[in-house]
Amino acid sequence: MSTMEAPVRTNADGQERKVGLELEFTGIPLDRTAGIVTKVFGGEVKKVHGFRYKVKDTRFGDFNVELDAHVLKKMAQRNYLEKLGIDAGDSDLTGPLDDMEYRIGKLAQKVVPAEIGMPPVPMSRLGDLEPLREALRKEKASGSEASWMYAFGMHINAEVPDLGVQTLLRYLRAFLLLYDWLLKEHVVDLSRRISPFIDPFPHPFSVKMLNTRYDPVLSQFISDYLEDNATRNRPFDLVPVMALLDEERVLPAVEEEKNQPRPTFHYRLPNSNVDDPDWRFLDEWERWLWIEKLAHNEELIKKMSRLYLQHRRFRLLSAGDEWIERVNELVHEEL
Fold first, then answer.
1. What is the sign of the dihedral through the CA atoms of 317, 318, 319 and 322?
2. Please, are residues 163 and 121 in contact by the beta-carbon 8 Å criterion?
3. How do the domains of the chain map onto residue ranges?
4. Is a pLDDT exceeding 80 seen at residue 100?
5. Are 198 and 269 within 8 A, CB to CB?
6. Sign of CA dihedral 309, 310, 311, 314
7. CA distance 329 to 89
8. What pTM does this model have?
9. Whose CB among 41, 166, 261, 328 lies 3.0–4.6 Å from 243's, allowing a Cys bridge?
């Protein structure tokens, strides 16, 4: 079990908050991966198409096992394959599904991971998902460290405590203040840093959000967010929860990207080290919990925001070790 706990364990309805994981890896065919899920958690495998399976009615709910065409499209749009020295060919990456399946099939073993989307479980039961990680490791799944080309991650979908604008803003501020420190704590792989999935928030946006006088209503907060971040390509992605709050405005802003409105923070920083016998889901969860703890300490947010803005006035391009060391002191002394 995790030695840390979220400071707010329940949602607005008084139910225990839930968390879902998305795990990327390679080395195991999708049909076999789906079979591993049933072996660990029960359920029944249903093939949706060649690159997507559902595992229905497990003891936790339904799992998705897939290769995602959106991954390949985004890689092509950002010339990521060319950066890795991989020839993507001349085919149109925006074509129909059967063409995309063929293209993904050709490239999957190189750069496109398999992904298991796990159903949300109560926070207190997150450790119950660890047997799946161990089963994948034993079946020789490969994670981020297996190759310099593997920009694989584990995404954490933590249910929001409530949908209030001040709650969303406090969590965003906590992330922005901890971001450089978290990069070091997670040891985020270089291939993931240059990949088209976890670009940092623009500096002017961070400055605006951390201004202690910034006190928006919900509509203003959504507008300000989308002005600089009309994308899913952020390490702390608020698009799903914002789409839940204002679907008519948010979905058109990210229409080219996969999005499912839901009441969760979508956190993308952790690597997927599924082939490391010492790696645990709960280790990454504990790093996320620093954001939770800071988000519920308003005085420390104000203090750190002032320090951050003062520091960044002189270091626009890089936080530097001085800031990271200061954050490390503050989180261990005051959280």
1. negative
2. no
3. 156-335
4. no
5. yes
6. positive
7. 50
8. 0.88
9. 261
Radius of gyration of the chain (CA): 20
75 Cβ contact partners less than 8 Å away, ≥ 6 residues apart: 81, 88, 111, 112, 195, 196
Tokens of residue 153, six digits: 């991650």
**234 within 8 A of 198, measured Cβ to Cβ:** yes
- Determine the Cα–Cα distance for residues 89 and 221; give it in Å rounded to an integer: 42
* Calpha distance 209→222 (Å, rounded): 12
- Which residue stretches of 78-147 are H helix? 80-83, 97-107, 130-138
Residue found under tokens 């992904």:
115
179: CB partners within 8 A, 6+ apart: 200, 201, 235, 236
Token pair, residue 134, equals 């161990």
Contact 238, 331 (CB under 8 A): no
Torsion over CA: 226, 228, 230, 235 (sign): negative
Per the CB < 8 A criterion, the answer to whether 205 and 223 are in contact is no
Q: Which residues contact 111 (CB under 8 A, 6 or more apart)?
A: 75, 80, 81, 84, 86, 149, 150, 151
Q: Give how far Cα 235 sits from Cα of 12, 271, 288, Å.
A: 25, 12, 12
Q: At what angle do helices 298-312 and 281-295 cross, to 10 degrees?
A: 90
Task: Give which of 48, 26, 168 is closest to 109, Cα–Cα.
Answer: 26
Paired tokens of 103: 């293209």
Nearest to 123 by CA among 225, 2, 240, 220: 2
pLDDT confidence tier of residue 158, bands split at 50, 70 and 90: very high
Q: Which of the four pLDDT bands, split at 50, 70 and 90, describes residue 268?
A: very high
Closest of 66, 69, 68 to residue 55, by C-alpha: 66
Mean pLDDT rounded to a whole number for the chain: 86
C-alpha–C-alpha distance, residues 103 and 43, integer Å: 30
